[in-house]
Write a structure and sequence with these properties.
By secondary structure, the protein is α+β, with helices and mostly antiparallel strands. Among the domains are: about 260 residues, no CATH class; about 110 residues, no CATH class. The protein is built from 22 helices and twelve strands. The strands form three sheets. Strands 1, 2, 3, 4, 5 and 6 form a six-stranded mixed beta sheet that branches.
């Protein structure tokens, strides 16, 4: 059954049982028929055609029945009360376990081309950057009806709203991971080409819109982590920034990823504080950063923000020296070490408080150097007169406080920031690893997001459109998950083969497919329930 659906998607772009039936019984060569156990001769009578098609329908019905935690009659609209009972099962422990098995099966399909690319070395130039995005998956069924009191056939579907749109799409949301790369400033300046690798979909999850958005993304990332591929920066839009940090930001950091995020209008500006350091647009800064710089992005709606973006860039550049510097990269638990911007051999600001508490040792014997080499850009930039000076309160000049009375960011050599920020949800939620709107952030966030849009365009193209519900008619979240996974798998194979042909002029061969390592057996102890008796699905599938 699954092989027939994959062939149908490959040759027609549609994941329908009717297309699978035509290909399996009328288009396969004798050798392929023998491999799949298809009769040597195609059905020759109307009765034989109906019998052959019903076998496929029953095959899909058996698969979805085993995987569905709340099997119901999908041939009619249930009353709202009946539908609520069935949909509530998806949120119970048994329902989540069944959903996880479904998710595992879908990702094993999607990751098969990824394992092929990894085994053949096609991903060796990929540094581990990826983008995560939610895209709409419309369905053919109508939504719930208040007039008749009946629920949709798709009992777990909902309304998906794309960013900035007030018009919803009834169906599901698919979380997609895409292999991406950031733009290196040094590489771009030297004219280096972007790394060459197939920009595959690295994972898929299908769920009710706005439900478990962060958790689904983390589940897919955990499946990807089993391949032991490199981890880089994970770029996500505002839908993921708004997730509860224990559901997205914290587990993503603990998987080894850095975060590049965007913010809603209400979340920009000062977002919190940690051991005296102020969190400004996701980055920790000196507690005495000028307020005009700290609140440069605060209070503007999205329309005004986009219009004034060019005006903000000089202000963003002015506050960069005040941000804390990375002293130690994240450890296995996602904890990083940051230090005062006035500390270290290359300070970015002048701080009288820091000089009083930790006087700098002379780097050379003899009197201090008074001559500046104006022709040397590095000498000019490293001189104290080229750095901004932190403005301390007037009282500190007459009555300087002791080290113990100062915040840790000023008195200690460095501060530790754990992934969960010790329960400070705002810090854990909004902190990211690149300074928001800075050139470094733009080189990371914008290319990765464009790769997300490129993957969506590829999977929702004219030939194979996962956004067209007529290409996957079978109703129910289980059936839709399987069909979308098959379509994305074929899309991955197409991306991989196109990349290989453009690069070397060759196509995927039998040796490539034979090199795919088997997916691990994750749930050996699970035994499905006995199948109930049911009618075959309607003929328009």
């Amino acid at each position: 059954m699954l092989a027939g659906l994959m062939l149908a998607v490959y040759y027609t772009g549609r994941a329908t049982v009717s297309d699978a039936w035509r290909i399996l019984h009328f288009r396969l060569q004798p050798a392929a028929r023998a491999w799949l156990g298809i009769p040597e001769m195609p059905p020759s009578t109307a009765r034989a055609c109906i019998a052959a098609s019903r076998r496929l329908y029953r095959g899909l019905d058996r698969i979805t029945t085993v995987l569905d935690p709340a099997r119901c009659d999908r041939r009619r609209r249930l009353t709202q009360a009946e539908a609520d009972i069935h949909s509530a099962v998806w949120d119970e422990a048994a329902g989540r376990a069944a959903a996880n098995r479904l998710q595992r099966m879908a990702n094993d399909l999607v990751l098969a081309p990824v394992r092929l690319a990894q085994q053949r070395g096609y991903l060796r130039h990929w540094a581990g950057d990826l983008g995560v995005d939610a895209t709409s998956i419309p369905v053919l069924a109508n939504p719930d009806s208040d007039r008749s009191g009946t629920a949709s056939v798709e009992i777990t579907a909902g309304w998906h709203f794309s960013g900035g749109s007030d018009k919803g799409i009834f169906g599901y949301s698919a979380n997609l991971l895409v292999a991406a790369h950031s733009r290196s400033g040094e590489g771009a300046a030297k004219g280096r080409r972007a790394p060459s690798y197939p920009q595959l979909c690295l994972g898929l999850s299908l769920d009710t819109p706005t439900v478990r958005t962060g958790e689904n993304a983390v589940t897919v990332l955990k499946h990807l982590a089993e391949l032991r591929l490199p981890t880089g920066t994970c770029a996500a839009d505002r839908a993921y920034t708004g997730c509860s940090p224990e559901n997205f930001q914290i587990p993503v950091r603990r998987l080894g990823y850095r975060l590049a995020l965007d913010y809603k209008a209400a979340d920009r500006g000062i977002q919190g504080s940690w051991q005296g350091a102020v969190l400004i647009d996701g980055s920790f800064a000196c507690p005495h950063i000028p307020n005009a710089l700290a609140q440069a992005t605060h209070g503007m709606d999205d329309k005004t923000f986009r219009r004034r973006l060019d005006e903000l860039k000089p202000v963003v550049a002015e506050r960069l020296p005040y941000f804390l510097k990375l002293k130690q990269n994240a450890d296995a638990r996602g904890t990083v070490r940051l230090q005062c911007p006035a500390a270290g051999p290359s300070p970015s600001v002048n701080c009288p408080r820091r000089e009083r508490l930790r006087p700098a040792r002379p780097t050379a014997s003899g009197p201090p150097q008074t001559v500046i080499q104006l022709a040397d850009r590095r000498s000019r930039a490293s001189h104290a007169s080229a750095r901004p000076t932190v403005q301390l309160p007037d009282s500190e000049w007459t009555d300087p406080p002791g080290k113990e009375a100062l915040p840790a960011v000023c008195g200690a050599s460095a501060i530790s920031v754990p992934a969960d920020a010790a329960g400070d949800l705002k810090i854990a939620k909004f902190r990211q690893d690149s300074h928001y709107l800075s050139p470094a952030w733009e080189r990371i966030y914008k290319p990765v997001r464009s790769h997300n849009e490129g993957l969506n365009g590829r999977l929702k193209g004219a030939y194979m459109d996962i956004g067209n519900p007529t290409h996957r008619r079978a109703p129910g979240q289980v059936a839709q998950t399987i069909l979308i996974a098959i379509m994305v798998t074929i899309g991955n194979l197409d991306i991989l083969e196109t990349w290989l042909y453009e690069r070397s002029g060759s196509r995927l061969a039998d040796a490539d497919f034979e090199s795919i390592p088997a997916a691990p057996d994750h749930d050996r102890a699970y035994t499905p329930e006995p199948l109930g008796m049911g009618r075959h699905p309607p003929a328009n599938l």
